[in-house]
Design brief:
- This protein is an alpha/beta fold.
- The protein has ten helices and ten strands.
- It has one domain: NAD(P)-binding Rossmann-like Domain (Rossmann fold).
- The protein is 41% helix and 15% strand.
- The N and C termini lie far apart (41 Å).
- The model has no long low-confidence stretch (mean pLDDT 93).
């Protein structure tokens, strides 16, 4: 089974899934759990030190560095549910196979029946249009990975296919089954400027300018998504690429920006009607 991003912090749901899988499966017929986490877990080191908009050289590795990832501090974002998922696999022996998939900043048009819009960069574009400037938190040097939603869906399909084949290879599941999904990274301050430049080119801004924001102002402007604009979250998606042959193929987040800006402008116009 696969759960959604909204379940990434719901302890009750995770415990229920763990109990159900353990009681209904065995070593000869294991249950497979693909849990959607998030790379927000990597922001712990900035958030705990009260750092905003600063650069870090720290890049996490989901292949050689998987032990570090599954042992991040208990206070880290998503960690409470990550532990439930991982423990479900270890406590149930061979009856439950778990994998945690951690998307970073997601962009691109979704193909679902309702939610087709991402969060972080879309709220950034919305904020640029509303305040007529590019938000800049701290020095604007914090970095995040990003992935196109279509490439992300292909990564999930690869894991689902292995589960359907009942592939119990330990490199895929349990304490090894921790996956980043990235196709590059961006600097939030630079991306904010790219969004502002695109908005000006499309006639939605009179001039390209940046506006310094503290974290509280950013949250009031764009909600919780704005927090990510000031914190670092950097990792390499080696496990999907090297173990399962995942090959991202969609255009970059920078190339997607004009479409994001146009869509957010249209959405804001609709809200005013």
């Amino acid at each position: 089974m696969t759960d959604t991003a909204d379940a990434s912090d719901h302890e009750g749901a995770a415990k229920a899934i763990a109990e159900g899988l353990a009681s209904g499966h065995s070593a000869s017929k294991p249950g497979y759990w693909l849990h959607t986490g998030g790379t927000g877990i990597l922001t712990y080191f900035d958030s705990s030190a009260d750092k905003f908009g600063e650069h870090t050289d720290k890049v996490f590795d989901d292949l050689d560095g998987v032990d570090e990832l599954i042992n991040l501090p208990k206070e880290a974002f998503h960690k409470n549910v990550d532990e439930i998922v991982i423990n479900a696999g270890t406590n149930a022996g061979s009856a439950v196979k778990t994998a945690i998939v951690c998307p970073p900043t997601i962009y691109g048009d979704g193909r679902g029946p309702s939610l087709t819009r991402g969060r972080q960069v879309y709220e950034l574009a919305k904020s640029v249009l509303e305040i007529q400037a590019g938000p800049l938190i701290g020095g604007g040097k914090a970095m995040w990975n990003n992935v196109h939603v279509h490439d992300l869906s292909r990564a999930f399909v690869l894991l689902v296919e292995e589960a359907a084949k009942n592939n119990t290879d330990p490199k895929l599941w349990g304490s090894n089954g921790y996956y980043f999904t990235e196709n590059g990274e961006h600097v939030w301050g630079e991306l904010s400027k790219v969004v502002a430049e695109s908005a000006k080119q499309q006639g939605f801004l009179k001039e390209v300018k940046m506006e310094q924001m503290d974290m509280e102002t950013a949250k009031k402007t764009a909600g919780f998504e704005a927090v990510s604009w000031g914190w670092n979250s950097r990792g390499k998606a080696r496990r999907f690429k090297e173990v399962l042959g995942w090959k991202p193929q969609e255009r970059s987040i920078e190339d997607e920006v004009p479409t994001i800006v146009k869509n957010e402008h249209e959405r804001l116009q609709q809200e005013k009607k």
